[in-house]
Input
Amino acid sequence: MATDVGSTTTKARFFKRMENGEWRFVVAGEAPTTVEAPYEDVTLGVRNAVREVEELIGHKIMASDGTGILVPFDGNEGVDLYCTTSSAGGGLQMMVAGLIKIMTAESANRAALGAGAIVMDVMAHNDGRQTYQKIKRIRSLRPDMILLAGGTDGGASARVVEMAELIKAAEPKARLGESYMLPLVFAGNKALHPRIEKLLSNSFALTVVDNIRPVLEIENTEPARIAIHELFMEHVMSHAPGYNKLMKWTDIDIMPTPAGEGLAMQLIAKAYGKNVIGVGLGGATTNVYSIFEGKFVRSVSANLGMSYSITNVMKSAGIRNISRWLPFKLDEEEVADRLMNKMIRPTTIPQTLEDLVIEHAVAREALRLGLQHHKTIATRLKGVQLQRTISDMFEQQLAETYIDMIRIDIIAGTGGLLSHAPWRTQSLLVLTDAFQPEGVTWLFQDSVFMMPHLGVLSTVYPEAAWQIFDKDCLVRVGTVVAPRGVAKEGEDVMDVVLEMPNGETINEKLKFGEMKRIELAERQEAKATMTPDKAFDIGNGPGHKAEKIVMGGVVGVVLDARGRPLQLPEEENSRKELLLKWFKAMELYPIDELKELL
Amino acid sequence: MVSEEAYAYTPGLKVKLSTIIQKIRRLPIPGEVLVSEGDKVDYADVVARTQIRGDPEIVKAAMLLSVDPEDLPGHMVKRVGDSVVKGELLAKYSSFFGLIKKNVPSPLDGTVEAISDVTGQVVVRGSPVPVEVNAYVPGRVAKVLPREGAIIETNAAFIQGIFGIGGEAHGKIRIAVDSLEESLTEDRITSEDKGKVLVGRSWVTIGALLKGVEVGASCIVVGGIKHGDLTKFIGEEVGVAITGEEEAGLTLIITEGFGKMKMSRQTFNLLERFEGYVASVNGATQIRAGVLRPEVIIPHSEHFEEVLGDELVAGMIPGTSVRVIRHPYFGALGRVLGLPIELQQIQTRSKVRVVEVELEDGRVVVVPRANVEIIEE
Output
């Protein structure tokens, strides 16, 4: 039994080993989260969700006196393991600080995000703010925890102590009450440990760990991440309503939901041995994960979401960027009013096709901004001397991020809008338009929200978690084949030969601006031989032929010759015409009803 | 057990003629409570007060004196715990028989909190800042929360809005429009509206909001506002719905939503009935955690037959009054005709649980259950 105590809903998932020895997902139960008044006890919501599961499977899981989950399964009642993730009451909110903004502060930010935190502020000696401004900011934040880094081992010291003195002087208060000491993790210059202990141990629940940047060339986030998880349990969770009880029910530590989701994304990367971008598009936040050549990075855009923060997507992206995805004419003010109305009534759902298309337009922008933000976190280590080759000399500058979309093999999505899209083609195109995958990219989706559950389960039973993940959680949506490059409309882009599993060969000639969809069922594969025009790159360099396996799925194979970067005309009528052409090619919406809106 | 279905629709906003309101008035940190149980209080009466520790200021003393940080303690004039006033010497340095002199004055009134021989910094803590909490509503102290504040109880009419801007205020209610359809425009507001709570029937224009600020109105309560006008009024787009701290010049409460919305008849009738009464208002809205909605509280001593049914507790049943809260019937009021059990396909091709509603204009429509809210009468 695994649960996720979300900000609005508590979701229980029941897994079982079948007679053939295989682990499968069996049933789900859901109930409103009870973290807020008048309940203020999360175990009530957990109990309600688990009770739904009990009713469906027909055996008892909860102790009759309500004292917890019955463990182990005795043949009639109980379960063998209970674990949970949690993001209720705002999740884990942290402030991080370092010495230099693009070095230790950036590493500290990555460590906190990787641990599943929402980072409220990143403070650095050189962040451009005056001391009084930093103090004012710290006093206004109410974090759950602080991570302080700074200096390499044996390196800078006085400036790091200055930052520690500043934090101490500001007297930050813990979010969940005045009554306990705010946890602070120090992961900076190890030569400073005695000084930091003397300075901070009376004012904070201080934990000192190995340096996050022992030398400039190495980033070591693991000790800080482990400390954050321990403190999250010991200090933060134990002060949240009902968590003291819930902690006693669980067999393993409660994990922040994004940390569970991140583990699930890592499972995909590990199972396929590929580079992965994962995304959780929620009601309040957008989490983006990347596993690129084994390096795991998470980013969270705390106010980019599809319900509570839908208007913040509009504010950040601009209403014009949302409207550019609409194939019909609708006054921008009308769109803005509708989004404001969704924000104040976040549980409503689109009833009309027009409203659905608007929500998909917003989702594209939330995801685009989320990935843009992620790229600012997934960067090479700065402050490190780079070995530059002759070819680098001709480049204007090295890209800040190491995420190269042509080398991303898999994109996986989860979250309400993507899972509830009436037709799966819609989530595929929303993800494709937002992330603009290049080359050959497989797309996956969460079936019924259970990635966090399987992530936390994988910490103790990795094999069982993967079996369930593979069979019941991951929906194969399909493969997008999209060469990098641009041309004029109608010019040649690429020839594709698909050797289908039934022995048939499909030949496609793609012109610029075109999209084609070819059916290839889930768990089937085809061999694709792609010959791009000299202006286009499919993975082996411009004009070079490539052979790859394409994965089938509920949508199939999508051949996308719309250009990378995607070319959307400025002129309104031609843009709308083109959108409609793409939507038609993808059978994205009921086309007759869409035409009525034009 | 609370079933999921019972939560499938939004519990409606409250509109009540007469109810007992209890307001918790709490200090941000512990302090002194100034009232006792049973005391009568008025709007502006202070019920509790405390002092928040002052802001610290960090002075780079060693750098200013051009001495090494470890030598700073020898140059300090003040010690940890000493009080200082702005301009008073914290540290000084002199050499060459007093020919070279450097002084470090305190940048503010306060206390020396720390002197660091590692960084050469001195922390001066500013004087404490007093914080008070008033009663907000006139009434009786129902309970004292030791060191925290008090609960004030009053008999009042109560209206919850859907979205607001600005914090607590109070003022006399005046209905500022004549007809059902009329929007609240600037020509409807005069200098006599200073301190008043102005009620419009339909939406409000940006001109009216600015006129309201100009004449010093306390609050404007209307059905709707256009997104663009709200942005102009507060100077930025609303991103996340956490409001109440804006300093826009008046409190604004929207009862229905964004766009050209009409206030529900029931809400308007209630406000009209209490024209001339003093209302306490608060625009603070927080949609995510805890769901805080803006409110209009009209204390009165009249007693009405309670018309509140048990519908909400029972959930939605045929006959329940509802409001549609999503396009294409946004804002329409009606009564539940039927609640089909089977999922039904809607235009988006999603299969969802629906409700059949007879709208006020006689039309019978089918909408997702997630898109209606119960009207609490």
